[in-house]
Amino acid sequence: MTAGVLGRRFSSLFSHLYFTPFWTSYLRGDKLTKATELESKKFDKALDEILDLLNNLENDDPIIHFGDDVIENIERAKKKYGDETVDEKINTIVREMLSWLDLEGVDSEET
What we know:
mainly alpha; single chain; elongated; 67% helix; 111 residues; 5 helices
């Protein structure tokens, strides 16, 4: 597992924790402990710095480099048909195209 993948997983975990009722209660001072506004800002800043650090451990290189015209058309299609529909159709097409290739013996793990 690369640092970028690890960073994205931690980012997802921290984002999930940040928006759970436990953390929002703490930050709002509702049920658990009254946090001062300064403490809340410090917590937010520290969390943002941790997420930035984890997200920047490794540059993300897209698997497929789409042309600008293709990206524009994908964005237009998603506006018209929705993200899920367009993602499903693109995955179906790519899956079919990849089935034509001989990928026997090729390791899918990142190097």
